[in-house]
TrEMBL record:
Its main location: cytoplasm. A divalent metal cation binds at D8, D9, S43, N96. It catalyses: a ribonucleoside 5'-phosphate + H2O = a ribonucleoside + phosphate. SUPFAM superfamilies: SurE-like (SSF64167). It comes from Cognatishimia coralii. This is 5'-nucleotidase SurE. It is found in: Cytoplasm. Coiled coil: none annotated. InterPro entries: SurE (IPR030048), SurE-like_Pase/nucleotidase (IPR002828), SurE-like_sf (IPR036523). Keywords: Cytoplasm, Hydrolase, Metal-binding, Nucleotide-binding.
Length: 260
């Protein structure tokens, strides 16, 4: 198996090393793992691509490259330049430092890479590690994803799910904020929405009197509907959410037929 891995935390991120270990286990001794990751952190860029300007690519080692662009740029670089001799069989993005459950999924560069993989017709999975008081101060905060990551990917791939929908599936996997031994299992659930949680901005003035806006986040442990990704993560379960790039609100199409 030929696996392309990327992330949005950057080429030096701790979670990328975890992903490399997961990918090597999946690829096996006869497989290949290729890393194409952002040169700098790209958190929150979603599915952005550098359409209006070029991006520099640098090789740091055998099958290891950094791109001065977004995670989706890295996927494009991996498919059409780095691995142009043969497309990857699987694209893995992460392991993200922090959850991409709930509304975070809409902003996630980790999932932006997986979405691009799906648009290219390649199986793609984004993996993220929820942080909380039970795992943030462990020697390895990524313990849950490191120990359970390869197994859950195997289970997803083993389903061999097929669909006539032109938008191919990709998967959002979030590991709970607990040590590996405390993981209760896996649940396949829809994306949730944390109550009252939104991004915002905070104004700060520097000593030179210039003003800057910093983006602020919301409470990551705020409740959401039961049996959604946020809820099951906080209960100690790994969440698996199948996703598509189709943004259509299918449940509302008939409601608006009257404007035709």
């Amino acid at each position: 198996m030929r696996i392309l891995i990327t992330n949005d935390d950057g080429i030096q991120a701790e979670g990328l090393s975890v992903m490399e270990d997961i990918a090597k286990e999946l690829a096996g001794p006869d497989g290949e793992v290729w890393t194409v990751a952002p040169a700098f952190e790209q958190s929150g860029v979603a599915h952005c691509i550098s359409y209006a300007h070029p991006t520099m690519i640098t090789q740091f080692g055998e099958r290891r490259f950094a791109v001065e662009g977004s995670p989706a740029d890295c996927v494009l670089a991996g498919i059409y330049e780095v691995m142009k001799g043969g497309a990857p069989d699987l694209i893995l993005s992460g392991v993200n430092k922090g959850n991409n459950s709930g509304e975070n999924a809409a902003y996630s560069g980790t999932l932006g890479a997986a979405l691009e993989g799906a648009l290219q017709g390649i199986p793609a999975i984004g993996l993220s590690q929820f942080y909380g008081p039970d795992n943030a101060f462990l020697d390895n905060p990524f313990e849950a994803s490191a120990q359970h990551g390869a197994d859950i990917i195997r289970k997803i791939l083993a389903t061999k799910a097929e669909s006539s929908n032109p938008y191919k599936l990709f998967f959002n996997v979030n590991f709970p904020p607990v040590p590996a031994g405390a993981v209760k299992g896996t649940k396949v659930v829809p994306q949730g929405r944390r109550a009252g949680t939104n991004f915002g901005v905070e104004l700060q003035e520097r000593p030179n009197r210039r003003k800057y806006l910093w983006v602020t986040g919301g409470d990551q442990r705020a409740p959401s509907h039961p049996e959604t990704d946020v809820a099951v993560n906080l209960e100690g379960y790994i969440s698996v959410t199948p996703m598509r790039a189709d943004y259509t609100a299918h449940d509302m199409l008939d409601t608006f037929r009257g404007i035709e």
